[in-house]
Design a protein that fits this description.
The protein has 507 residues and is mainly β. The chain has 2 helices and 35 strands. The strands form 8 sheets. A 5-stranded antiparallel sheet has the order 4-3-6-1-9, with no helix packed on it. A 5-stranded antiparallel sheet has the order 21-20-23-18-26. β24 and β25 form a beta hairpin.
Length: 507
């Protein structure tokens, strides 16, 4: 009997050793997760960009549980995939309600330098929201993208702003295949303007993997390119994409869009505000062109009223145009008539503008738009960008927003000093106030926390004080009013790009 027991133990030990060797440096053993008490449906968050580029970049995931039950360490897993679609690392997570957890590429020993891959978070309990930030080791520049749920994936998907050699700016992006089978991806690049030219690019993409495309090295786009991209796959395999805009020590990040809207909202638009000015890039993803008189761009100050940008640009199907840069332009030379824009006369005239921008299609039901907002400080070399919100989408009618990563003068030797600000737009017909619930009660309160936000207006909230760690935040309207918002993360004490912006996640 002892002989048989010894043989059985030896077999078990050998199987464990073999399984451990197959898993390499992973922190968990692959096994079917137990069925969760909340129903057992597995949901996933997708991150097309997950990098560890040494002195250039590293990725960080901030994951916030907005559910009422714990996302347990049996049913919650983060998985990292290489370019070949093979899983190279995994880790169980446990996140209590209204708590967050962070995964950083530069702290995972098994992820090599110069790694370019993707990430997936799987969960069956709780309700997870997440944001991906890309940190630059030397200059601490930040960019941010949100994690995608499966219903945000699709084919085609759209990128409103692509650049190559545009005054030193270049974009790059990663496309992730979220299906269980390989696919062929085709990208149509189209220059901005009614007569924009096209360029096409195709490649094979493994299941779960990402393909990185750097426009600076894409000669097919020509010497200079400013435009947009439409990404599609064979057999309608679902895709997601995250985008970066980069110049020297500046890097901005934003997300793809799956569908367009008749009306978009930018909760924060600036002109000469402490050096910052905004612009809008709009892409027509509908089936009809948008005429010059059928697009209304409006800028609204919280207290001073609104003005409209004169539009003399047609937007073709899959075409794009830039707005906002000249909306507040002052008097032109006398030889040109010395005219001024409506917005200059209404607001600017030597003053700054901080408010809301909306873009609305008129009399063209088959046209749809998506958009991205750039925030530039041309003098200081700072900036960021974020996606415009679909005013009528289901998410834009929610009364809660998750911000998975916030700072209050967070000081550390490796990360610098960060603080967060928020612009919350009231997307309803009734005034509202807000409540702010942090993942740690030690986080200081936001400024002007009790202010009333009128319907169709934005409230600004800052997070001063001192708090040694990163936190997560839930913002809720007190009367059920629909709200949307963005978070600006600013880094103090650096001379290079120190601003990152991401879209709050509605639920």
């Amino acid at each position: 009997m002892k002989k048989y027991i010894f043989i059985l133990i030896t077999i078990i030990l050998l199987s464990v050793i073999i399984q451990k060797a197959e898993l390499g440096n992973k922190l968990f053993v692959k096994a079917a997760p137990k069925v969760a008490a909340t129903g057992g449906t597995t949901r996933k968050l997708y991150f097309p960009i997950f990098l560890n580029k040494g002195s250039s970049y590293y990725s960080m995931l901030s994951i916030h549980n907005v559910g009422s039950v714990t996302a347990s360490n049996i049913n919650t897993i983060v998985k990292i995939y290489g370019a070949n679609g093979k899983e190279i690392y995994g880790q169980f997570l446990s996140i209590a309600p209204n708590q967050k957890q962070t995964i950083s590429a530069n702290t995972i020993p098994s992820i090599p330098r110069n790694f370019m891959g993707s990430a997936i978070v799987e969960f069956t309990e709780g309700d997870l929201k997440a944001v991906h930030t890309l940190n630059r080791d030397k200059s601490k520049a930040l960019m941010a993208n949100t994690g995608y749920l499966e219903d945000q994936a699709g084919s085609p998907i759209y990128i409103p702003l692509i650049m190559r050699n545009n005054s030193g700016w270049n974009t790059w992006f990663a496309v992730q295949n979220i299906s269980s089978s390989d696919t062929t991806v085709t990208i149509n690049f189209k220059k901005s303007g009614i007569d924009g030219t096209d360029a096409n690019y195709s490649f094979n993409l493994k299941a779960n993997s990402s393909k990185y495309l750097f426009q600076k090295s894409m000669n097919s786009l020509g010497a200079k390119f400013v435009g947009s991209a439409v990404i599609s796959s064979t057999n309608s395999t679902k895709l997601v994409a995250s985008i970066a805009q980069e110049q020297a020590n500046q890097i901005y990040g934003y997300d793809h869009a799956k569908t367009g809207s008749q009306k978009l909202i930018a909760p924060l638009f600036q002109y000469h505000n402490s050096g910052y000015s905004s612009s809008l890039m709009l892409l027509n993803v509908g089936s009809a062109s948008i005429g010059r008189n059928n697009l209304k761009i409006t800028y609204t100050d919280p207290t001073k009223g609104s003005c409209t940008e004169t539009n003399n640009k047609e937007i073709a199907v899959n075409g794009s145009q830039i707005y906002g840069l000249m909306a507040f332009a002052g008097p032109t030379p006398a030889a040109s008539g010395g005219t001024t824009t409506e917005c200059y006369k209404t607001f600017y005239n030597g003053n700054s503008f901080v408010g809301v921008a909306t873009a609305e299609i008129l009399n063209t039901p088959n046209a749809k738009i998506i958009g991205v907002v750039n925030q530039h400080n041309f003098t200081a070399g700072n900036g960021s960008c974020y996606n415009m919100f679909d005013a009528s989408s289901q998410l834009s009618t929610k009364s809660k927003i998750s911000f998975p990563l916030v700072y209050a003068d967070n000081t550390s030797k490796t990360q610098g000093t960060y603080w967060s600000g928020f612009n919350i737009y009231n997307n309803s017909s009734q005034d509202t106030t807000l409540t702010f619930s942090f993942s740690d009660s030690a986080v200081p309160s936001v400024t002007n926390a009790t202010q009333t936000i009128p319907a169709g207006k934005t409230g600004t909230f800052l997070l001063p004080g001192a708090y040694p760690n990163a936190a997560a935040l839930t913002v809720t309207s007190t009367n059920g009013a629909s709200i949307i918002g963005i978070s600006n993360i600013t880094e103090n004490g650096v001379s290079t790009d120190k601003l990152a912006t991401y879209n709050g996640i509605n639920y």
